[in-house]
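Hey team,

Filing this mostly as a record. A colleague (T.K.) asked me to run one chain through the structure pipeline before their review meeting, and I want the input and output archived in the tracker in case anyone asks later how it was produced. No errors, nothing strange. Just documentation.

Input sequence:
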Amino acid sequence: MKYMDMVTIKNEMKEIVELMDFEDLYYDDFKWFSEINYTTTTEYLGELKIFIKKIQYNNKFKKYQKKFRIMCKSIDKLLNIYM
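Output structure:
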């Protein structure tokens, strides 16, 4: 499994946001998910999974589709640990 923990996932989101224009529609979302900025682990993981599912097939993020699928699988595994 490539994504083993939340820090790794956060860093992947940070890499994406650093390539985005700050006026991009999804910039603020990526920025939020690129920081450890949440009240609980399950909140962060659950919200991130919803966000990824929302954008993963958007043509703008086509080059990240495989990465997003791997993240979602990792999130599921992490949620099983925390719940």
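Quick notes for T.K.: The chain has a mean pLDDT of 88. The CA atoms of residues 11 and 20 lie 15 Å apart.
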